[in-house]
Amino acid sequence: MADGIKTIVVHIPKRCRKPKMDIFDDHIDKVNNARSKKYLPEDTNIIVMGMGGQGLIDSYNKKYFGIPIPNRPPPQEPTPKPPKKVIKKKPTKRKVVKKKVVKKRVLKSELKQAFEKQKAFINGETDKNFW
């Protein structure tokens, strides 16, 4: 039997005393549908239904038929995945932070002296101590 999930039904057919196990490839809802007589006859007494693989089949065999679970080798490990590509991060540019210019406060008296000095320069009234 191929690997995969199957629908497993343990039922007692009409006019029988011993349970019977049927395994279907279809989904459990399709098998359990009341209108589908394709899978199970109407008068069957369903004991248990389940979806699973070989482990579920073995457990049902042990529980309902008295067949011991066989010792099987563990399944082969899947092939290892190839390593992921390492994406190198591009170096980010540093942000240039502009420094705030702090203006110095000028006293009114110094400002007045500067204006008077400018007037004297414009009018040509300069002397040796001007600069």
Walkthrough of the structure:
It is a single chain. The chain has a three-stranded antiparallel sheet with strand order 2-1-3, covered by helices on one side. The N and C termini lie far apart (109 Å). The chain has a domain at 6-65. The longest helix is centred in the C-terminal third of the chain and has 15 residues, at 108-122. Strand 1 (6-12) and strand 2 (20-24) form a beta hairpin. It is α+β, with helices and mostly antiparallel strands and 131 residues long. 24% of the residues lie in helices and 15% in strands.
Could you list some keywords that capture this structure?
single chain, 131 residues, three-stranded antiparallel beta sheet, 3 helices, 24% helix, rod-shaped
Topology record:
Elements: E1 6-12, E2 20-24, H1 28-32, E3 45-52, H2 54-65, H3 108-122
Antiparallel strand pairs: 1-2, 1-3
Strands, count: 3
**Average pLDDT number:** 84
Contiguous uncertain segments of 5+ residues? none
Radius of gyration: 47 Å
Short description:
The chain has 131 residues and is α+β, with helices and mostly antiparallel strands.
